Structures are given as C-alpha cells and as structure tokens.
C-alpha cells in the first residue's frame, strides 16, 4: 500500500473501527420523529431532514454544556423497551453500512429509566437490540462486532451503580466502562471508588478527559483513577512545546495509551479550531496511539467515512494514516487479544489491500 491520497468512494469501502460513539447521540432522524410521535414528545420539527439540520446547528455552539443539551430529544424516545430495541438495532446496522467492522457503543443506563425501566432492564434491552442488529448485519454480508461501554454520569450519584452493572454484564456484551457528562467542575477522582471496583474486578475503562478541561483532568484520569484509554484527550498538546513532550505527554505516548479523538465533535464544543489544525494529526506524527471516532453521529452530522474524508481532504492524511488509526483502535479495543489480532490480520489489513 502506498502513502497516497484517496477519495471518499475508496474510504467508504475501507474497514473501520470506532471506540468512542454514544448510542443516544447517533439515532436516525426519522426514527426520532416516529418514536417521538408514539410517546407524545414534542420536537423542534417533525421533518427528518430539518431535524438533522437542527441537531447539527444546535451543537455548533462551541460549548460542551450546550452540545450535551441537544440530547434531550433523543433520550426522550429511548425510555421504553421498544425504543431501546429499535435504536440499538439500527445503531449496529448504521455502523455496518459505514464499513465499520468493530465498534464500541457507550451510553448511561441511568438516563433511560424515566419510563419505568430499571438500569438492569435497560442494559439487557440494549444488548438484545445490539445482538439483533449484529445478526442482521452478518446475514447481509457486512458483519460487525459491537461491544458496550456503560457510562456513569460524572455530575450525578449513580456512577457506582453503573460500574457494578459493568461488572455484572461483562460476560454478556459489556466490554468496559466510562464516565461522561460535563467535564469541567466534575473531576474523575470524585468517583474513585467506582474505578477501584472496576480495577479489582479486571474490567477495563476509559474516561472522558482533556476536552473541556486540561492537563489536570487527563492526569487524574490516568494516574489517580487508572484509565486504560482517554476519551478525547485533545488538550494533551498543552504538555508538548516545540515538539518536546512533558512528563504526562511522555507517559501517554510511551505507555501506548489510546486517545479517542473525535475531530468534528471537538470543533463543535470548542476543543479544536479546524480539521486542518486538529491535534490528531500532530499527535499521530509524534507517535501517539491516536484513534479516530465519531462521538455522536446525529449530533455531529457525521460518520466514520466522513471523519476520514475530512482528514484526507483538509489535513493531508493518506491511506496509510487511516490504516494506522484503525489498527490503533483495534489494538486498544476492550476485547481479548486474540480477537483483536484476528480483526487486524484477517479483516482490516486484507480489506485495505483489496480496497487500494
């Protein structure tokens, strides 16, 4: 494979892996409209195309808190068993249509209990929907493996409960844990007991850090809480001056700690200024284990194909760069080593060779 520029049609055919993608941020607009009608929830518009545009425009505020506020309408239609089953199944099918061969989907079960479901029932229902989607994708000849990350909301008080569910369902499709929500003012160390539980039970976890808050957030996530990956982490660049890495940046690079980078989302929340100048490129060139992700496909109006295409067109990425971040993601996926290696050697590398 040569280090050459490639177009969107080729990119669409490439096998992809995504580690940072929120279930409640990736619904189909038409599904939101239909489910909202069924549950009596009022939307900004009932036209699917207009709703997609509303999400994208509302999220382009440059502020993480306002970005998160757009989830009101997706969460409103994910409070019933039927809503969860449908959105989970469609999530998998949409990944498969985008060429994704491995994905990790994250959500906070506590946010889906307003309709009377317990957190345990939410987890079991989502797993059922994901399994149905994977079966349909495989039958269609586009198999995709999807693992689940359960999230605790860092500004609320049910993080420990979510961590306990991650332990309980780790042999039933849940592959790891995360904390999400407003980062600034809610440090990860506030939930140290949950992370200590996960470490004792050998459940891997990532932590949203270095997006709305800087180096102290990343330091706490890694050195106090023990995260194996960092969600976003764009502000690790604050520990790099003229190409010289500080102690924390060196730790991240040298220990091969994956950074789950989400370029379009970072532009929307103000964590980055442009695709061309997004830190993912500089960090890639410095040898960090960067991965490429969508974060919220509806809210950010994006797909893995789009994220890759933007970096090719605006940041000069090559096919080799795209292959590197895909392999990086699989190396850091929260599934067993032999399964990661098989995806790399039997799916991704041959898929790149065939597409190029």
Automatic annotation (TrEMBL):
Binding sites annotated in the UniProt record for substrate: 22, 24, 181
Record-level Gene Ontology MF annotations: 2'-deoxyadenosine deaminase activity; adenosine deaminase activity; zinc ion binding
Any Gene Ontology CC annotation: cytosol
Top-level enzyme category: hydrolase
Xref: Pfam families: A_deaminase (PF00962)
Entry's EC annotation: 3.5.4.4
Cofactor: Zn(2+)
Secretion signal, residue range per the UniProt entry: none
Co-factor binding comment: Binds 1 zinc ion per subunit.
Binding site for Zn(2+): 20, 22, 208, 295
Active site: 211 (proton donor)
Keywords per UniProt: Hydrolase, Metal-binding, Nucleotide metabolism, Zinc
Catalytic function, reaction form: adenosine + H2O + H(+) = inosine + NH4(+); 2'-deoxyadenosine + H2O + H(+) = 2'-deoxyinosine + NH4(+)
Site residues by UniProt (Important for catalytic activity): 232
Family label: Belongs to the metallo-dependent hydrolases superfamily. Adenosine and AMP deaminases family. Adenosine deaminase subfamily.
Role summary: Catalyzes the hydrolytic deamination of adenosine and 2-deoxyadenosine.
HAMAP family: A_deaminase
Protein name: Adenosine deaminase
Provenance organism: Streptomyces glaucescens
